[in-house]
Amino acid sequence: MVVLAIILSIIYIGFIGFVLKKIFEGDTYYLLLYILFTLPFYSTLQLIIFKGFNVIPFVNLLKYSKDFVFFTGFFILIFGKKESFIEREWQLTLLDKLFLGFMTLTLIYTLIPLGSASLLSKMIYAKNIFLMGIIYFLGRHTNIDEQRWRFIVKFIICLIVGSFLLALLEIISGVHLQSILDYGRFNSIMYDVSPTGNYGLSWTFERQGSLPRFAAFFSNPLDFAASLLLFFSVGLNLLLHSKYNSNRLAYLGLLLLVIFSFFFSYSRGAIIASVILVFLTLFLEKKYFLLRIALGLVVLLVTYIFFSSYELDYFVLDTFNFQNTSSLGHLLEWLEGIESMLLHPMGIGLAMSGNANGVEQALKISGENQFLIYGVQMGFLGLFIYISMLFKGIKDSLKVFKHSTKQHVRSISYVAAATKIGLLIPLFTANAELYLFVAFLSWFLIGSIETYYLKNILNRNIQ
């Protein structure tokens, strides 16, 4: 493990140096590659380094290295050009203004004396929100041409296959990768969080009946499931736009890997979201015959569940009537968050809800709904701006998908919109903006598409 930790540390540090060099040369596309090449494995890399070296400061440096990379890229973007930042002409879209408003509101709530969290905790939490905006604006200044998009898709295919094979190996062996890498000990020492559940990890790694669910190389099964929605969007797009039957067969096989992986990670929200994505995609592509077939299959599935074994029927009903332990836990967290918002319409302050870095668990209120997490902390205004950001990003991406004649632009806009739509359900049940890979990649793509939207739709120059 020590040798592996040394090798991976050298590779990672070398890659950061390469990315920073490219950023200083003005090519923000390499920040997108940083997201692709590192964030799916970010937590696993920390576990390996911790197990190999057992040096806490080095792990902390690794943990915050992503922040250094993205903040560096952002400051170079703002101040690294010959033209003065103030003298530059900025044409902002509504989505740009929403992001700036959300970041400004975050800054205000960081500085005002509201809530019981310390200033340091607020600053750490605010950093996570600023990163979301930074990623978006870096995407706004990144042109993804056809060749680059083709490379991105190829790497995503590698991630699909790799995560499936690793999760399959976990199932066959009956051992979580995280157990091998001392996940429980890592959280105990780094975050003062004791292991929970029947596998010595956390409750996230198991489902009803103490059955395991797996994360492959992602941070946890819910992170894996959220990333699968991105993979599913890419697979659907490839399948529907392939020109050759042999490729269609390969892409259908790829989609099957993603579907199997949904059941490996076993997130009900992600599974339901993937079904919604199928209907949305077929509707957008005007594949009405296939849409009717899909609807018929869903009806057959519902009928099967209704007449199936008592256990399956009982499990499905418990999920929707909130008698299932997990569903009941979500409901209680939602009620707590709603009550807090009604009592404090302007919010109770940053670092007071959710599971992000900076949140003191003894102080937190609610935490299993991304919308309520922001609403509890920054009030109804913060909740409104965040919802507006999501829906405006989806709307603009769908407009580009509808109007553009360039296939790679249509693909990027579809993947960006479909991923965000798919994530809407996980956002109701988790602090899903913490799933770095899928959150950052989707916001980056939204930003890139927003630039195309500004130039070719708002400015009436459609191509």
For the secondary structure, the number of strands is 2
Structural class: mainly alpha
End-to-end CA span: 52 Å
Q: Unreliable stretches, pLDDT < 50, 5 or more residues?
A: none
Question: What's the SSE pattern?
Answer: HHHHHHHHHEEHHHHHHHHH
Strand content: under 5%
- Principal-axes geometry comes out as globular
Mean pLDDT: 86
Helical content band: over 70%
Side by side, the strands of the main sheet go 1-2
Major sheet attributes: 2 strands, antiparallel
What can you tell me about this protein's structure?
A two-stranded antiparallel ribbon has the order 1-2. The chain is built from 18 helices and 2 strands. By secondary structure, it is an all-alpha fold. Helix content is 73%, strand content 1%. The chain starts with a helix and ends in a 5-residue tail after the last helix. It is globular. α12 (268-284) packs antiparallel against α17.
List keywords for this structure.
463 residues, mainly alpha, two-stranded antiparallel sheet, 2 strands
Question: Would you summarize the structure shown here?
Answer:
The chain is mainly alpha-helical and 463 residues long. Helix content is 73%, strand content 1%. The mean pLDDT is 86.
What layout of secondary structure does this protein have?
Blueprint: H1 2-24, H2 29-38, H3 42-53, H4 56-79, H5 94-111, H6 119-140, H7 146-173, H8 177-180, H9 183-191, E1 206-207, E2 211-212, H10 221-241, H11 245-265, H12 268-284, H13 288-306, H14 310-320, H15 325-343, H16 370-403, H17 407-429, H18 436-458
Antiparallel strand pairs: 1-2
